[in-house]
Design goal:
The complex is a heterodimer of chains A (334) and B (168).
Chain A (H helix, E strand, L loop, with lengths): L19 H18 L5 H13 L1 H19 L4 H8 L5 H8 L23 E6 L6 E4 L5 E4 L4 E6 L4 E7 L1 E5 L11 E5 L2 E15 L2 E15 L5 E4 L2 E5 L8 E2 L11 E8 H9 L5 E4 L7 E7 L3 H11 L2 E7 L2 E6 L1
Parallel strand pairs in A: 5-7, 14-17
Antiparallel strand pairs in A: 1-4, 2-3, 3-6, 4-5, 6-8, 7-8, 8-9, 9-10, 9-11, 11-12, 13-15, 16-17
Helix pairs in contact in A: 1-3, 2-3
Chain B lengths: L7 H22 L2 H17 L9 H31 L9 H18 L4 H11 L5 H8 L3 H21 L1
The chains are: A alpha+beta (334), B mainly alpha (168).
């Protein structure tokens, strides 16, 4: 788990990607990428890799750049077959000729890295992102613990006056820490629909289409949106809100989200909703025919093994699983 | 800033070099329509730069920008053609909707951009890993090289992609 909190960023010089530590970190990250994608990778190597990421913010930052690249592939939704055909194509003759004839022209000016400044002065900023099927725990500067679920992204902006987390996509569990050593800074979580103020809490936030969903496990929080009246939420309750409406709170029985334990729970859930949920943890295309809309499902399902979940569905419901490629799966009526 | 279109510097640049640039592009592309489009795009790009008035070698400058735009547009066309050809070979019921196709093409193009400049074998090794999820040993077999070469290719590819991504 990368613990950026142990590093005193304010005393460090400003950094950009073209400085030596960043260049070295990128090289090292590339080597780690090779190790981790190898069929012979060991658990102890994985631990070493995590330790390397924690050891220095430049390492963590370099690794995030790697993840941005792999994310492009994961998020494309293209089957392996189509992707290979489009990307592994031979260069067409016109293009080769056109490119060759102008290679002698000198490019003007250098390309700057100025936009990539992860650490700025008094402020503390960082972005975290997870790939499909990945979960990640991060300790922030103030001791707050974040757990990102699959396909999620958050931006962190801490200033002298406030602590702020911007949820850009997906789902995150936030366990706030008390800062005893300094003047209290309020803690806000922003979503496209509104702002949540945490009052010493453990809660999860999920962006689901145009709605923000909040489940509160400990403490209390306040929800503000641009047009709805401010509303408080208390431990053991969940709600959801849009920019104009905050739904009434409903009670929940779990004390932390199931996904942090590697499960998701369906209670008489429509199959279509269930498949949409499962698709969050799975690379590629997963769909279900509309004429299966009447089917419902209950149970506890492991999110790390979506193939097995699909097999289970095929055994218990009247559905057939069609697989065109590893990443292109559809459920249809038997 | 005053309206740059009426600024004498830009007008002179445009009047003096537009038809020359269009001719240059047409000779590269063998196509007058695309050349006219790219000429306009090039001057648009110049116009949006703040330091256009200090250009000393206008033709070298214009061809540099035009070249970048041309390579991009050719790359996009190549990719589209390869994608559509592959779609034509898919069974009808697996064909993505027009909307999905447009989204996939955008995604593929953004991947293509960061892959640009990689040696063919390096590129293929990386694609086999990322798209087909092949093991290093299987990639080695497919490319008829050693596993250690495959690992060098992958390291080179990911490093290149990260750097390209930061530039774009």
């Amino acid at each position: 788990m990368p613990d950026l909190g142990s590093v005193d960023v304010s005393s460090r010089p400003r950094r950009s990607l073209d400085t030596t530590p960043h260049k070295d970190a990128l090289k090292a990250a590339s080597v780690w990428f090779v190790r981790l994608t190898s069929e012979t990778v060991t658990n102890s190597e994985r631990e070493q890799w995590l330790a390397w990421r924690q050891a220095d913010p430049t390492h963590e930052y370099a690794w995030q750049q790697i993840e941005k690249v792999t994310q492009k592939f994961n998020a494309s939704g293209v089957s392996a077959e189509l992707g290979m055909a489009a990307l592994d194509r031979p260069a067409c003759p016109t293009r080769r000729r056109a490119v060759q004839q102008v290679v002698s022209i000198v490019a003007l000016g250098g390309i700057g890295w100025a936009a990539y400044e992860p650490l700025i002065g008094q402020h503390w900023e960082a972005d975290f992102e997870t790939a499909t099927g990945e979960q990640r725990r991060v300790t922030l500067q103030d001791g707050t613990l974040l757990t990102l679920n699959t396909r999620s992204a958050v931006d962190i902006m801490f200033t002298e006056q406030q602590r702020q987390i911007l949820v850009r996509k997906g789902e995150v569990l936030i366990e706030t820490a008390q800062e005893n050593s300094r003047v209290y800074r309020p803690f806000f979580v922003r979503t496209p629909q509104g702002k949540i103020e945490a009052l010493g809490t453990s809660f999860s936030v999920r962006l689901n289409k145009q709605v923000s969903q909040v489940s509160l496990y400990e403490g209390a929080l306040k929800i503000q949106t641009s047009t709805a009246a401010e509303q408080r939420l208390f431990a053991g309750h969940a709600t959801q809100f849009t920019a104009s409406h905050i739904a009434p709170a409903v009670s929940i029985s779990n004390t932390r989200p199931f996904w942090t334990d590697g499960f998701f729970v369906a209670d008489d859930m429509p199959l279509i909703e269930f498949i949409a949920e499962l698709a969050r943890y799975r690379r590629g295309h997963l769909s279900v025919d509309k004429n299966l809309a009447h089917l419902r499902i209950s149970g506890t399902f492991p999110i790390a093994d979506t193939d097995r979940v699909l097999e289970t569905i095929a055994m218990t419901l009247p559905v057939k699983i069609e697989t065109f490629t590893r990443y292109w799966v559809n459920l249809r009526a038997l | 800033m005053a309206n740059p279109l009426s600024a004498p510097g830009f007008q002179i640049l445009y009047v003096d070099h537009r038809s020359w640039l269009q001719g240059w592009l047409a000779s590269k592309l063998g196509n007058a329509w695309d050349a006219a489009d790219l000429t306009q795009d090039t001057f648009m790009r110049v116009l949006l730069k703040e330091d256009w008035s200090s250009i000393r070698e206008p033709r070298a400058y214009l061809t540099t920008i035009a070249h970048g735009l041309m390579v991009n547009s050719l790359r996009r066309k190549d990719l589209e053609r390869a994608y559509l050809e592959a779609l034509a070979h898919l069974p009808e019921n697996t064909c993505p909707s027009p909307e999905t196709r447009a989204i996939q093409l955008e995604a593929l193009f953004s991947i293509d951009e960061i892959l640009d400049g990689l040696a063919p074998k390096v590129r293929r090794a990386f694609l086999l890993l990322q798209l087909e999820g092949l093991r290093h040993a299987d990639i080695a077999e497919r490319l008829e090289v050693s596993v250690s070469s495959v690992r060098q290719y992958i390291a080179k590819a990911i490093h290149h992609c990260v750097l390209r991504q930061c530039q774009i």
